[in-house]
From TrEMBL:
Known function: Involved in transcription antitermination. Required for transcription of ribosomal RNA (rRNA) genes. Binds specifically to the boxA antiterminator sequence of the ribosomal RNA (rrn) operons.
Name of the protein in its database record: Transcription antitermination protein NusB
InterPro entries: NusB-like_sf (IPR035926), NusB_fam (IPR011605), NusB_RsmB_TIM44 (IPR006027)
Alphabetically ordered keywords of this record: RNA-binding, Transcription, Transcription antitermination, Transcription regulation
Species this chain originates from: Candidatus Nanosyncoccus nanoralicus
Top-level lineage group: Bacteria
Segments for region (Disordered): 142-164
Family, per entry: Belongs to the NusB family.
Presence of keyword rRNA-binding: no
HAMAP family (UniProt xref): NusB
Biased composition (Polar residues): 152-164
The keyword RNA-binding appears for this protein: yes
UniProt cross-references to Pfam families, sorted A to Z: NusB
Length: 164
């Protein structure tokens, strides 16, 4: 069974994917709160603390325009709208978590890669790892207060391993 946080990220990802799909389809009832609540319900006992899922998904939705602006230059040859919706939402979750600094960067990137392996295409995990590793380096996320000790070298080695 997945850890509570991992399961929470899966539910958040599924909720964000559904929200984006329904919103693009012109569904006026596409409200993230109700989508999250519906997706959490079957797992609420196993999950325990549901605040993590609501906070993560709501944070991504509230900051989506900012996250998208920051993601686009990180993979300039891949316009965000052409990236598969599942990968796009994994990137948003990962970047949001890197920026809020609740979890060490290595864990954030590893979790995003695991989501990509489980839900993305064959190359999604490498793409996600590369983009989030670049975000960590280029957006100054490793130089600001709150850096987790050893995280820069761990992320770099993880990024370098995926490039081989």
């Amino acid at each position: 069974m997945a850890s509570n946080r991992h399961l929470g990220r899966i539910i958040a990802l599924q909720s964000l994917y559904e929200y984006e799909f329904r919103a693009k389809a012109g569904d006026a009832t596409a409200e993230i709160q109700s989508i999250i609540a519906k997706n959490i319900e079957p797992y609420s006992k196993a999950l325990g603390d549901t605040e993590f899922v609501f906070g993560l998904a709501n944070g991504v939705v509230e900051n989506q325009a900012k996250l998208d602006r920051e993601l686009q230059p990180l993979a300039p040859e891949w316009p965000l709208e052409t990236i598969a919706a599942i990968d796009r939402n994994i990137l948003r979750i990962g970047l949001y978590e890197l920026e809020i600094r609740v979890v060490p960067p290595k864990v954030v990137i590893n979790e995003a890669v695991e989501l990509a392996k489980a839900f993305g295409s064959d190359n999604s995990s490498k793409f996600i790892n590369g983009v989030l590793g670049t975000a960590f380096k280029q957006l100054g996320l490793n130089n600001e207060e709150g850096e987790h000790e050893g995280s820069k070298s761990q992320v770099e080695s993880q990024t370098n391993a995926s490039e081989q």
